[in-house]
């Protein structure tokens, strides 16, 4: 990972080794506590159980609206059971944001992260906030700063946005992959994105240009804000559903086409391309093609498509392979996210949006390396 990052680095002479060492040490500590101590393991179980409980609460609203639908015994509707609960989780995020709980957590966690890593107040704040608020809403919290950012700082915040996932998605992810890997990946991804940025995009943040103003919330009436979050959550679920229909159908089409022509499926073919990376991450040799295929599927389509595929083949993979690929998939690093980020930045500043478009492929490589780093660290404990 360091080698690839060094090859595409914008300033190889000033790679920030000290910050890398501090962030990596923090990753090792967090992953050790979470995956290798009884207290950490029990805490992850409780967090997973809490999100499962939230899914049951969300089912109340889903059943009220869609309860009349007939589903065959033992069957499941992905849209209802996995995507629709996003509406409820989004509402909870809105409430916590409105009563200033989330801004408080984000501010002080970002402050502590900056003190440890020296990455900059803005970068540290954004790295934490994007793991909670998601896209494109998170960019609005620093909309006053975005037009003033250098191209280097812009890369770092965009890399953080691609490497993280929003809190509203966590419960849905846990329906497809073990909850403990989802939670650990959320923590590690925050640090992985900053580590990769220290290699690919090294710089020292300007002391006189630190983040001094952060959006302090919304002065709109509570129920108006709540309604906005609910609608946003529903639109997100619809968007994800539409993307899944299109991408899964496209992959099915490619698989059948490749099978008819060369007798090898498209997913198997790209699995061989990513297999060496999977092997270097620690995936056992007999699982590298399957894991490589899932890695490529996530990059080309999105994490939901890959998680859905993993859910069907997890029983055929070793525990180590399951741990690595589960953690790897918990991020927004894919081609589609580039468009979302570029569009979000461009809506705030046309010039900055053009910068993002210029380094978009470098951004995708960096975010993917961050996911690889997260998956590799988790695999150490299995």
TrEMBL record:
Domain Nucleoside transporter/FeoB GTPase Gate stretches: 79-177
| Matching InterPro entries | C_nuclsd_transpt, CNT_C_dom, CNT_N_dom, Gate_dom
Query: What sequence ranges are listed for the domain Concentrative nucleoside transporter N-terminal?
Result: 2-69
Report keywords, A-Z. Cell membrane, Membrane, Transmembrane, Transmembrane helix
Where is the protein found, in the record's own terms? Cell membrane
Q: Enumerate the spans annotated as Concentrative nucleoside transporter C-terminal domain.
A: 182-379
Signal peptide residues are none
Name of the featured protein: CNT family concentrative nucleoside transporter
Protein source organism: Lentilactobacillus kisonensis DSM 19906 = JCM 15041
Per UniProt, what is the membrane topology? Multi-pass membrane protein
Recorded GO CC terms: plasma membrane
* Any GO molecular function: nucleoside transmembrane transporter activity
């Amino acid at each position: 990972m360091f080698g690839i990052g060094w090859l595409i680095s914008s300033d190889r002479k000033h790679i920030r080794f000290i910050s890398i060492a501090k962030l990596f040490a923090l990753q090792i500590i967090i992953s050790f506590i979470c995956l290798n101590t009884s207290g950490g393991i029990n805490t992850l179980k409780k967090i997973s159980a809490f999100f499962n409980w939230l899914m049951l609460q969300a089912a109340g609203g889903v059943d009220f609206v869609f309860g009349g639908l007939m589903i065959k015994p033992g069957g499941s509707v992905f849209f209802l059971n996995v995507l629709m609960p996003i509406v409820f989780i989004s509402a909870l995020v809105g409430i916590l944001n409105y009563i200033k709980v989330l801004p408080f957590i984000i501010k002080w966690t970002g402050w502590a992260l900056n003190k440890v890593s020296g990455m900059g107040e803005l970068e540290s704040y954004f790295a934490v906030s994007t793991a909670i608020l998601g896209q494109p809403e998170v960019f609005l919290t620093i909309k006053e700063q975005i037009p003033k950012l250098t191209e280097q700082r812009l890369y770092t915040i965009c890399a953080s946005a691609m490497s993280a996932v929003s809190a509203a998605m966590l419960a849905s992810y846990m329906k497809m992959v073990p909850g403990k890997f989802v939670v650990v990946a959320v923590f590690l991804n925050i640090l992985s994105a900053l580590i990769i940025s220290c290699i690919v995009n090294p710089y020292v943040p300007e002391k006189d240009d630190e983040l001094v103003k952060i959006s302090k919330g919304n002065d709109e009436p509570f129920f108006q804000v709540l309604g906005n979050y609910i609608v946003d959550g529903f639109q997100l679920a619809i968007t994800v559903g539409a993307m899944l229909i299109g991408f899964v159908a496209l992959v099915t089409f490619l698989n059948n086409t490749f099978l008819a022509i060369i007798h090898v499926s498209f997913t198997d073919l790209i699995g061989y391309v990513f297999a060496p990376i999977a092997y270097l991450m620690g995936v056992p040799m007999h699982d590298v093609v399957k894991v490589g295929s899932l890695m490529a599927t996530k990059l080309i389509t999105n994490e939901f498509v890959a998680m859905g595929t993993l859910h069907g083949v997890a029983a055929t993979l070793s525990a180590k392979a399951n741990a690595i690929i589960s953690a790897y998939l918990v991020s927004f690093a894919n081609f589609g996210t580039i468009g979302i980020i570029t569009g979000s930045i461009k809506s705030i500043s046309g010039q900055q949006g053009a910068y993002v478009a210029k380094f978009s492929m470098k951004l995708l490589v960096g975010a993917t390396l961050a996911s690889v780093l997260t998956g590799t660290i988790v695999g150490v404990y299995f």
